[in-house]
Amino acid sequence: MSLFPIRTWRKLAQRALSETDNSFFYDPDPAGHLELRNQISHYLGYARGINCDPDDIIITTGTRHRLDLCLRSLTRPGDTVWMEAPGYAGAEALIGVHRLASVPISVDDHGLRVDAAEEMAPNAKLCIVTPSHQSPLGVRLSFERRQKLLAWAAWANAYIIEDDYDGEFSFDTARFPAFKAMDIDDRVIHAGSFNKVLFPTLRTGYLVPKSMRSKVQRL
User: Fold this and answer.
1) In this predicted model, what pLDDT tens digit does every residue of 137-150 receive, in sequence order?
2) DSSP label of 10
3) Which domains does the chain show, CATH number per domain?
4) ∠ CA 41-149-107 to the nearest 5 degrees?
């Protein structure tokens, strides 16, 4: 945070508030402020390779809020969910809250072992994955496994939550487009955040559920 231009941020925030009419503070759209969604859709197009419109996006708060919305809209109690092992502990806790069955799937140098997951629970309804940098191991889900995961989701009528928590960073290799950019059957829900590129207390993120937006937005 010592490198973050806090003074500049304050000036820009003050300017934006001074130039905003009162309707901004009473925006009734449950998907979030339209202009913010418009800017995010533009950003996702050039930075992450995702072709989406503002109407495809839902603004959220923290990581748990995004995941909670997805679990509530895509699963029922008793459904099975693939989880990376090791993986995000907060996801494991939410899966328990929603009375879902978590299946831990091992991770190797190429990311989530899709073949192992298909053997253990082929009829799972959801997969939660961190393809850009696996949390906490940091490996990237290979192109071949992304293809296999998409094929499984289409076969099983399942969905994939792409937690792109730090997809903006590329530490030692050329950056892949987002997993969602490969998704032609609308099986991937892209989940992003500004916590890493700006600052964590901003607590602003987004979902790109596309065809599932109306279902997610009703919650």
Assistant:
1) 989 999 999 999 99
2) H
3) 6-217 (3.40.640.10)
4) 105
Q: In angstroms, how far is the first alpha carbon of the chain from the final one?
A: 34
83-89: long-range contacts, CB 8 A cutoff, minimum separation 24: 83/128, 84/112, 84/128, 84/129, 84/130, 84/134, 84/135, 86/136, 86/137, 87/128, 87/130, 87/135, 88/63, 88/128, 88/130, 88/135, 88/163
Of 10-14, 23-27, 145-149, 208-212, the range with the lowest mean pLDDT is: 23-27
Bridge partners, 126 (sequence order): 81, 159
This model's pTM is above 0.85? yes
Count other Cβ atoms within 10 Å, centred on residue 101.
15
As given in the structure block, the two tokens for residue 159 are 């969905």
Residue 201: count other Cβ atoms within 10 Å of its Cβ: 8
d(CA 41, CA 45): 6
d(CA 212, CA 183): 14
Answer whether 57's CB lies under 8 Å from 37's CB.
yes
Whether the CB-CB separation of 174 and 143 falls below 8 Å is answered with no
Specify the 3-state DSSP secondary structure of 55.
helix
What span, in angstroms and rounded, lies between the C-alpha atoms of 216 and 219? 6
Rounded Cα distance, 125 and 12, in Å: 43
Element (H, E) at 37: helix 34-47
Q: Is the pLDDT of residue 215 over 80?
A: no
Give the span between the Cα atoms of 204 and 198, in whole angstroms: 10
d(CA 109, CA 70): 28
